[in-house]
Amino acid sequence: MTTQTTAPGTPGARKADATGGLLPLPEKAARALALGGSVLTALSTFLAWTWTADFPGDLTVYGYPGGLQVLVLVGALLATLVALASYGLKGLRWLVPAGADPALRLATLAVFATSWYTVLAISADLGGLVNLEPGGFLVALTSLAALAGALSLPFRRPEPDPADPDDTGWAKTRHDLAHAWATTKAVFAADSPRPVPALPPYAEILIIVGVLALGLTVFTYGIGTEYDEQFIGFLITAGLGFAALNKAGLISHASQITARHQNITTCGAFVAAALFPFTQTDDQYATLGVYILIFATVALGLNIVVGLAGLLDLGYVAFLGVGAYAAALVSGSPSSPFDAHFPFWAAVLVGAAASLVFGVLIGAPTLRLRGDYLAIVTLGFGEIFRITANNLDGTSGPDITNGSNGVSSIPNLDVLGFDFGAQHDLGGYTIGRFANYFFLMLIITAVVVLVFRRSGNSRIGRAWVAIREDETAALAMGINGFRVKLIAFAVGACLAGLAGTVQAHVTYTVTPEQYLFAGPIPPNSAFLLAAVVLGGMGTISGPLIGAALLFLIPNKLQFLGNYQLFAFGVALILLMRFRPEGLIPNRRRQLEFHEDAEAPTLLTKAGA
After folding, report:
1. Is there a cis peptide before residue 585, judged by omega within 30 degrees of 0?
2. Fewer beta carbons within 10 Å, N or C terminal of the chain?
3. Neighbours of 67 (CB within 10 A)
């Protein structure tokens, strides 16, 4: 069963009925209902939704949205703009280059889901609907009306497959469910966006600045959510809002513009990231920021091994541990058996070199294996490293790592007289300890991005891609598969060790239990691999965004207690089901999962 998303007259396109929506409303009335409901929803956020301030966010104030009301207001404004653009207003056509109706359905769905979640949360926390003010009832009704109007807009319905008259009741039910699912997908299906018109270079650069500013704002708001209900509302609004912008075609246009100015986009992204500590009033969220950068840098190193070379490494976190232990042992810790206090640049070289050596030693005898066998060997290496670090305690083995107690009291870095453990005043802003390490990790992340980008576009990078796509064919073309894979393994290990040297100083202590295969707290091998796959294998921004999400979301879902990993696992399964190529896939991998997608006119050497 297929859904028609191609233009009429396309060869192979199935006949479809385009005479109505999911709900029986005339098109003009449905469009007006969607617009009016969105406007009224936005206005309702300026009313009180409950009478007591016991619910987080203080939704009792008239004329000033707070807490979850802000999220509903943002979603309602987006839905209003898309609804106005659906009328073909000349000044808003740029907002929906791929069509307005699918984006309008998703935008109104985002507003409805956030509004009703808030109303139900108020009722559950405070003890019933009686705790709602008129504004709470109004936002529930208007958001429902807007969604009903959007779902009543006409769309191209897929033609059902013929049913077998001999089917049993269960087979008929499966047939009906399959058609219902195809119809649901058709409701949100969008056409290909119009090409981006030629713009002056300064205009495109301004667009890039706006996109980066929007990304920084969303990230800052998400990481700074103060209570559980607000974070869940943020996830709902941000997720469905991003989907709406994607269906509208804005994400595609933004991607095309940034692709024309890759160097400017990359530099701008690091500038935007460097501004993050200045948006915070204390060092609390800079802590999350530096851990996210450590996690993201290691994930980007793993992306060389998995995303470019196609080698499944299940023990990659061990290289992070090797770098951290090597740096901790020579950084002047009183727990270290070596009486050495190297400067930072020397400790970085020691950590990166130690990880590189271990990468070569582990890779040399094992990289002749393929597939599952290589994965099992790397998984064993990860566990061997952790067990060995536990046993080097002076009892079961030589006294090197201090066993399960680890290397503790690692001093803060001091580079050219700049103490990373002290607060510093910069332009009227107070930069704390974790903000100092955030800037340091940002520099290291930039180095890793540069290495990834240059290696991916080099001759060795093209050899990695050839090995990933078909190792037998690559060998037949004269590529030395073993040498190429060993280089990928060594480079990935070296980059992980580089991040490990900073992690040792940030955490003060390095213990074996920090480097598990799987656990509720990243980084571990399972989370690192998930970050690469979730973000998009073979890309630069994919693992960075995937790592940020995989670190931030579990940190914010701690209120779920024992159900935290369950909820997180369900979310990953759903994402891999509906977007297996990752959040930001390279074009080659996207075509592998979506054969009906339009073929690109140009692919980079790494397919990114």
Report:
1. no
2. N
3. 21
Mean pLDDT, range 350-364, rounded to an integer: 86
pLDDT at 339 over 60: yes
The DSSP code sequence of 129-165 is: GGGB-HHHHHHHHHHHHHHHHHHTS---EEPPPPPPT
Q: How far is CA 151 from CA 21, 146, 290, 451, 497, in A?
A: 6, 9, 43, 48, 52
Pairing state of beta strands 418-419 and 414-415? Answer: antiparallel
Residues 6+ away with beta carbon under 8 Å from 361: none
Tokens of residue 244, six digits: 């709406």
Rounded distance between C-alpha atoms, residue 571 and residue 86, angstroms: 32
d(CA 341, CA 335): 12
Q: How many C-beta atoms surround the C-beta of residue 221 within 10 A?
A: 17
Phi, psi (5° rounding) for residue 94? -65, -20
pLDDT of 599 > 60? The answer is: no
Distance in angstroms (rounded) separating the CA atoms of residues 236 and 118: 11
pLDDT in tens, 476-496: 888 887 888 888 888 888 888
Element (H, E) at 302: helix 284-303
**Better-scored residue on pLDDT, 15 or 597:** 597
The token pair that represents 427 in the structure block: 């332009």
pTM: 0.79
What's the token pair of residue 119? 């109303």
Among 216, 213, 207, smallest CA distance to 255 is for 207
pLDDT value for 594: 57
Give just the sign of the alpha carbon dihedral 275, 280, 283, 284. negative
What confidence tens digit (pLDDT) does each residue in 216-242 have? 888 888 887 888 888 889 989 998 999
137-144 mean pLDDT: 93
Confidence band, pLDDT 50/70/90 cuts, at residue 387: confident
Residue closest to 33 by CA, chosen among 149, 138, 140: 149
Question: Which pLDDT value is given to residue 192?
Answer: 81
Q: Cα separation of 115 and 143, whole Å?
A: 7
Q: CA torsion angle for 117, 118, 119, 121 (degrees, to 10)?
A: 80
Count how many Cα atoms sit within 13 Å of the Cα of residue 235 in the half-sphere of its side chain.
14
CB contact at 8 A, 461 and 605: yes
Cα angle 135-137-141, degrees, rounded to a multiple of 5: 115
CA distance 590 to 581: 6
Give the residue carrying structure tokens 């100092």.
436
The answer on pLDDT for 370 being more than 80 is no
- Cα distances (angstroms) measured from residue 133 to each of 7, 54, 128: 48, 14, 12
